[in-house]
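ok so I'm stuck.
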Amino acid sequence: MRPDLSIVVPVYNEAESLPALADEIRQSMDGAGLSFEVWWVDDGSDDGSWGVIERLHGQDARFVGVRFRRNYGKSAALAAGFRRAEGRYVATLDADLQDDPAELPEMVSRLEAGGDLVSGWKRKRNDPWEKRIPSKFFNKVTAWMSGIPLHDFNSGIKAYRSEVVKSVRVYGELHRYIPLLARWEGYTKIEEQVVNHRPRVHGTTKFGFERYLRGFLDLITVLFLTRFARRPMTFFGGLGTVGFVLGFLMLAYLSVVKLVFGEPIGGRPLLIFGVMLILLGAQSFLAGLLGEMIVRPEMERAERYEVRDELAAVPEERRAVSA
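replied:
not stuck anymore, here's the structure
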């Protein structure tokens, strides 16, 4: 029997948090009458997280897991969970207990009402200022550049219709841009829900300031891919045209100066600049042509990871624990 909800939880050195998170998920889902499965994705932990996941699976077959051979990052962990999720709806949670599983039933209700994606908004965020301020700036820039009016792209708690996560390809640092990738695939009913954000109980954050730089570069990447991946000549050809025309006008002006007025032009910076623009314009055209020859599956091949172990409930077990 297909569960109502699949919950994907990326795990990296969160052994202390997992038992409490499992209890909270169980209480929230059973209290709401939702059948569920939880995919713990151990992203190369070295603190015994996989042993905890094995014990949780032994106690309750609804808790299943997959273990990577090394750390591949959150996007790879989510991609592995999305591929295995069997629920009608799919949700994500961070493993550090800062996301509240009690928010998920309301998110599912909004999906059942017609939403494609519900993103959590940590309006009151229990993090130090050095994380809150850069995150706020990052979210404002991302909302402006993407055109999606979300307040918290970095939120770990989100809920999706199953077909949404099956249609997007997540790799690199693109996990925070799933709403943008989903909209590109035609899922436009993107909603936001204010969620309870709790202080970290165990351990320390696994992300540093450099993630914002990587995130900004990935934003440029995803904007290009969603707008020009199937027509790269539109982007590169446009740049090439502008550069070529400007360079041609500069050289035409210098030709008039030389031929009509007899003034020397060899030492003028405008000559070098005009030649440079024409060369850059030609290179942009070439880049556009090459882009047209590259097929999109090249991007999908970036979704790579090696699985070391996997725990999965057989259909009979799932029916037994869901009945």
